[in-house]
Amino acid sequence: MQIFLPLKPPVVIVGDYEEARDILMRRCPREFDRSKLLSDLLQGALPDAHIMLRTDDTFRGHRRLLQDLMSPSFLRDVAAPNIYTQAYQLVRLWETKARVAAGRSFDASDDIFKAALDAVFGFAFGPSWPHSALQPTIDAMGELTGTSGEHRHDVENSPVAFPEGESDEVVAATLGLIAAVEKVQGSLSMKLTWGLLSLTPTLRRARRVRDAYVVKALRDAADLVNQASGHSRRLRVASAVDHMVLREQKMADNAGRRPDFFSSAMRGELFGFIVGGHDTTSTTVAWGVKYLADHAPVQDRLRDALHSACLPAKTQRRCPSAVEILALRAPYLDAVIEEILRCGGTTPGLDREAMVDTQILGHAIPKGTTVLLLTQGPSIRSPPMRVDDHLRSATYVSSAKGAGHGRSWSDHDPQAFCPDRWLVPSQDPHGQTMDQHVFDSTAGPTLAFGLGPRACWGRRLAYVELRLYLVLIVWNFHLSACPPELSSYSSIAGVTSKPKQCYVRLTKLGL
Ligand code: HEM
Q1: Are 349 and 374 in contact (CB under 8 A)?
Q2: pLDDT in tens, the chain (511 residues)
Q3: Ligand 1 site, residue 449, Cβ cutoff 6 A
Q4: Is ligand 1 within 6 A of the CB of residue 42?
Q5: Over 10-37, what HEC string results?
Q6: Distance 495 CA to ligand 1 centre (A)
Q7: Cβ atoms within 10 A of the Cβ of 22, count?
Q8: Ligand 1 atom 34: residue of nearest CA
Q9: Helices (H), 228-263
Q10: Which of the residues 268, 282, 410, 471 could staple to 49 if both were Cys, CB 3.0 to 4.6 A apart?
Q11: Which residues 6+ apart lie within 8 Å of 475 measured at CB?
């Protein structure tokens, strides 16, 4: 499909999963690379980060600064404890809200949004980071006691409104920059809109605050590295910024140059974690609580699976620790997370730009054309499209899973929320099918994190976050379905596709 927008070059939309996969995995970056559309969208909030770059030497230089941040040891030892602390804050807040709401619904989107910001702050800046997005809401709740006191029938279905508290300067600036991206998206000229927004004192102040806190975090980390100089292995890395500074120091030592801790790439990548990792994770968790509340059997089975997989926590009547959650062997948990990602459609389209004159399914695509690949299209959320194999690209046909071997969910209703689709019978070492089921992330198509050389860099961190949040929520609360008027599945199209309504109705469970 090709769409024409006023004053803009046409955009080509690819719905077919096989074609999208071919473009992402085999034709990127030579024929299709990251589009200018994305840098136009983000540049006013995030001046220099690899998410906006073409796949060239500068991109590879940025990636080198981030190397090992997604390693299992960094995620387990550094990232997970910081994120767990933030996720637990959300649980504590919801305990209070559940008690006050006394069986009524309340809007959960802001809490999830702020908790996810704290999680990504924790990842980037470590446990001593003093700014919390959720704390003002927790403080505002501290003044409320008892229950809502409203038990009249006419208010039973209406949501309870809770106070939010005021964000501090750093959190407000960060949220302001994220909100500015949403304002710019969809405008006729994103460059012009950024230009106009840049004239406003609010945006200018937000950028100043962002630059100041990013530079301060880099300076603090650089001081630690300098103090430990000569014994760099003794430095206790507590955050992504510590790791990046140490890495820059090592790269500089190897190249015989002075380290540049405050380069545009260092600053850009540090703030890039927040832009790339905040909205995406919070939107996915928001979809997750909706799907779990509306699919009680899935929620109950997940809780049972968690209890069996983490018996020490269950028998000691406590929450599982971060270490226990990451180590949980619960195929159903993996299946639920994967299904939330598939159905939520947090990122509805993946952007690419044609680097050369080329073709998609027999149609000429001139160099410079923006291409959007749907993550919720046929094969993923609806039956597959019929496509003549002779229209496919040479790369598709010559690939191992080429002509005629398209994958889709046609055996399972692609519309349905059904984590079981990700479970397959396990096999013994001789290839014999066994009774047990295992999680198979390749059981069918999904594009939740994109694919190929420009797929989501933070994917492993995202799984850690989703695990920690979903396990703590399901372990601590029963999520009941909300009244139909609060349970719409419509979405708001922004940088991510967020649920328009994200209400929860919680009952605190005895541990
Ligand atoms: C559930 C959470 C998340 C989802 C659904 C998600 C999804 C995506 C998607 C669809 C892309 C584009 C891939 C493509 O164009 O092929 C992307 C790119 C990216 N994501 Fe994520 N993401 C999530 C979490 C995170 C986190 C936690 C971080 C880091 C803190 C992160 C950092 C990035 C970066 C840096 C890119 C750009 C990669 C590149 O251009 O090479 N994401 N993400």
Answers
A1: yes
A2: 666 565 567 899 999 999 999 999 999 999 999 999 999 999 999 989 999 999 999 999 999 999 999 999 999 999 999 999 999 999 999 999 999 999 999 999 999 999 999 999 999 999 999 999 999 999 998 766 555 444 444 567 889 999 988 999 999 999 999 999 989 988 888 999 999 999 999 999 999 999 999 999 999 999 988 887 765 456 789 999 999 999 999 999 999 999 999 999 999 999 999 988 999 999 999 999 999 999 999 999 999 999 999 999 999 999 999 999 999 999 999 999 999 999 999 999 999 999 999 999 999 999 999 999 999 999 999 999 888 888 888 888 787 555 445 677 877 899 999 999 999 998 877 777 777 899 999 999 999 999 999 999 999 999 999 999 999 999 999 999 999 999 999 999 877 999 999 999 999 998 7
A3: yes
A4: no
A5: CEEEECCHHHHHHHHHHCCCCCEECCHH
A6: 12
A7: 25
A8: 457
A9: 240-255
A10: 268
A11: 303, 306, 313, 319, 320, 509, 511
| CATH entry, 1-144+167-511, from 2.40.240.20, 1.10.10.10, 1.10.630.10, 3.40.50.1820 | 1.10.630.10
Say if ligand 1 is within 6 A of residue 24 CB: yes
Tell whether 456 is in a known binding site: yes
Tell me the C-alpha distance between 453 and 457, whole Å.
9
Tokens 């305990």, residue located: 95
Minimum-distance ligand 1 atom for the alpha carbon of 350:
15
Q: Is the ipTM reported for this complex over the cut 0.95?
A: yes
The span from the CA of 211 to the CA of 264, in Å, is: 11
